[in-house]
Give the backbone structure.
Amino acid sequence: MSAYHTEQKKMLEDFLSRNRDKGFTIDEITEGISSEMSCGVAPARSTVYRLVGRLVAEGRVRKFVKPESRKASYQLVTCEHCDAHLHLKCVECGRLFHMDEAVSDELLDRIRSCSNFSVDEEETVLYGKCAGCNIK
Ligand SMILES: [Zn+2]
Ligand SMILES: [Zn+2]
């Protein structure tokens, strides 16, 4: 990877880590980075797309597909054991919650024994409203 791309990848990671409780589409990331930049050249959309893909492959970023729009959004992985529990995603504020591992395992065990279906823990996200958004 060229020095130019290393710098852009860092920019991208910085942006996602400052906004770690939200997910962004490729367009939103591209716009977000260029609006925050005071000098230099903002990465092109195609570059952002490629770099995000690399971060997903490295397991640093997770990809979510919003059920209503089928649009992919991306969010930084903030905990170390994200492959060992389910995630809850609030459709109102966009926050991602890491489900307790014991609760997650129990739920998956129940589904496996009742339906003989093994859920892909890493891929599955439950959508709904978080406590903060429920009281509004
Ligand atoms: Zn997690
Ligand atoms: Zn919420």
